[in-house]
Amino acid sequence: KSESQAKAHFYARQQMEKLKSYVSADLTAPGPRGAIVTTAPNNWLYPGDSSGNYALAAGNHDVTSNLPASLRSLGWTMSYTVTDTVCGTKVCKETKIDVAWPGP
Predict the structure, then answer these.
(1) How many domains does the chain have?
(2) Full residue range of the structural domain in which residue 70 is found
(3) What is the pLDDT of residues 12-40, one digit of tens each?
């Protein structure tokens, strides 16, 4: 169990670090995906996110495809949920990452 928890923590931390680059996104400008996608907001999609939305759009984002195939074949899943919260006059993004695996 502790080995699975360590792996889950590693992949969750990795996703959180990658998501940090989306915090100050200007959806009208080219994003991390550059010229791959012609519409600027689509450049801010998170690789592997099946939601098809901006990486920090409120809601659930399934990023299971970012796990190694060896873990996916064992039934592991990974997603993150973004919740908008009021921070004074701005909106903050609270992000929670969930990594799940079958068994103990």
Answers:
(1) 1
(2) 2-100
(3) 999 999 888 878 766 666 555 555 555 55
91 neighbors 84 (Cβ within 8 angstroms): yes
CA distance 25 to 15: 17
What is residue 18's three-state secondary structure? helix
| Residue 3 CB-density burial (10 A; 0-12 exposed, 13-18 middle, 19+ buried) | exposed
Place of tokens 């915090």: 23
Local structure of 12: helix, strand or coil: helix
- Of 67, 49, 69, 68, nearest to 59 (Cα)? 49
Amino acid (1-letter code) at residue 80: Y
